[in-house]
Amino acid sequence: MVPLIDDSMRDLLSSPIAAPEANRLVSTTLVEGLSVYSAHLNLLANYGEPIILTLMDQSSLGKTYRSADGNAYEVVLKPNDLRRPFVIAVRVDSSGIRDLLVAHVRQTILIMLLLSAFVTVVLMIALGRWLLEPILFLRDNLLRASKNPENPGVQESPYDSQDEVGGAIEIALRLIRQNAENITHIKRSAEDQIHRLAYYDSLTGLPNRTLFLQTLSEQTKLRNGEKDRGRFAVIALDLDHFKD
């Protein structure tokens, strides 16, 4: 529409578009009609079908109109759009827009679905690699520790201990190993304590009758296994005799 405006016209109160040019525009394009106004919104000319939009003041420049059947659409072209000191209200044929709009909406929805699927796949891969796999790795080590706390046999962590997930796994594995060491230490201490309570007198700390009999039994079996049938003797002393 801009090339139809006569730039050589100096009369701003006359239409800058010649009637033949306007009629050719209406007959060969989707433009069904147009109303030309001056910059001060003085109506200069009408071409083609009547325009529903009536420009009364500056607030009406932003208005648009769409017919009830959707076959016509009207819009206002302001001086900034035309780069000329005129305002033109244009009526265009929009009967073919419906199918294009539906196709555009369908295409947009399809693109959104594809993007959503792509983002979902990327998120699942990222979560599986950076979150799910470390959780399963930690779960397997915790199961080993629960089945055999003293010797859990935990695996070395393949994850970077500098990030949050890798650091948490490293701390958990360290606690599992410390727990195994503590259980081993407690077990050994308990075994030593049980051995002392069983074979030594709690008051004097000397070997008791149980240790004596066990040692005697072991020595007897050892002597019986020797070829020369070595002998040994057991001497019992009555300590009460030496009190005086």
Rg (CA only): 51 Å
Structural class: alpha+beta
Given the C-alpha coordinates, what overall shape results? Answer: rod-shaped
- The succession of helices and strands, N to C, reads HEEEEHEHHH
Helical content class: 40-55%
List the strand order in the largest sheet. Answer: 2-1-5-4-3
Mean pLDDT: 87
Explain how this protein is built:
The chain is of the alpha+beta class and 244 residues long. Helix content is 48%, strand content 13%. The chain is built from 5 helices and 5 strands. It has helices spanning 19-28, 79-82, 97-147, 164-199, 209-224, and strands spanning 31-38, 43-48, 64-66, 72-77, 86-93. A 5-stranded antiparallel beta sheet has the order 2-1-5-4-3. Helix 3 runs parallel beside helix 4. The termini are far apart.
Search tags:
alpha+beta; 244 residues; five-stranded antiparallel beta sheet; single chain; rod-shaped
Topology:
Layout: H1 19-28, E1 31-38, E2 43-48, E3 64-66, E4 72-77, H2 79-82, E5 86-93, H3 97-147, H4 164-199, H5 209-224
Antiparallel strand pairs: 1-2, 1-5, 3-4, 4-5
Tell me briefly what this model is.
The protein is an alpha+beta fold and 244 residues long.
